[in-house]
Design a protein that fits this description.
Structural class: alpha+beta
Distance between the termini: 37 Å
Strand content: 25-35%
Helix content: 25-40%
Radius of gyration: 17 Å
Shape: globular
């Protein structure tokens, strides 16, 4: 399945004028699905008629880190037990703290985590995920697979973006992606956050998306502005 999307800078500022706890539920959904740091990526050539848009966001951007924390807080506020961080989730959190300045991290919503038990699919993902800046291609520097409580695959790429670059494009091969049902905060659910009601898609998808290089340069500096 080929997918394409442009991550655009949209005219919205609630994340600048309000604290995360004051965001409405609709605003939180908007941050995760239709914001300067997130997009629902539409399929352009669909092999499975039941496939739908795939959620992706820039997990290394400051506003999205705030949104992830707020999503967890609201999950508990609804009466769910606090989610205990797994060793892999702890590893990712500590890794991001140490590498945020040098890495771009993409989060892609994955519903079928068991697909990552397939060693051949995982190996292919590691070999066929690239970031292209101008004529240069960069392989991903690491990945953190989805866990029981975090349904997002996180892919890391070097922050090799210069002032003279105009566009960044990613070409990814992903096991286990599918759609997000309308009206739900992506990543939020009953037992496993975000899984209920998802639409099943193909076993693995090859897709492309991109955005301006200025977007990827500027997103990192937003961490200090929105701390």
């Amino acid at each position: 399945m080929k997918l394409a999307a442009i991550l655009c800078m949209l005219a919205a500022s609630f994340w600048e004028t309000k604290a995360p706890a004051d965001w409405s539920d609709d605003e939180l959904v908007r941050l995760f699905t239709n914001s300067p740091w997130a997009q629902m990526v539409e399929a352009t050539a669909v092999k499975d008629s039941h496939s739908g848009p795939v959620q992706i966001y820039l997990a290394s951007a400051g506003p999205m880190q705030d949104a992830e924390k707020e999503r967890k807080r609201r999950y508990v506020r609804k009466g769910n037990a606090p989610v205990v961080e797994t060793p892999l989730e702890t590893e990712y959190r500590l890794w991001l703290e140490d590498n945020r300045a040098t890495q771009i991290v993409l989060a892609i919503r994955i519903n079928r985590g068991k697909d990552f038990d397939d060693a051949a699919q995982t190996k292919r993902m590691e070999e066929e995920c690239f970031m292209q800046v101008g004529r240069k291609k960069f392989k991903m520097t690491g990945n953190f697979p989805p866990t029981e409580h975090d349904t997002y695959l996180r892919l890391a790429f070097p922050r090799e973006v210069r002032e003279s670059d105009n566009r960044v494009t990613f070409e990814l091969y992903l096991p286990g992606v599918s759609a997000v049902p309308d009206g739900r905060v992506p990543g939020e659910g009953d037992d496993r956050q975000g899984e209920a009601g998802a639409v099943k898609g193909p076993h693995a998808d090859a897709w492309r998306f991109g955005g301006s290089a200025a977007f990827f340069r500027g997103a990192q500096s937003l961490r200090n502005r929105h701390a």
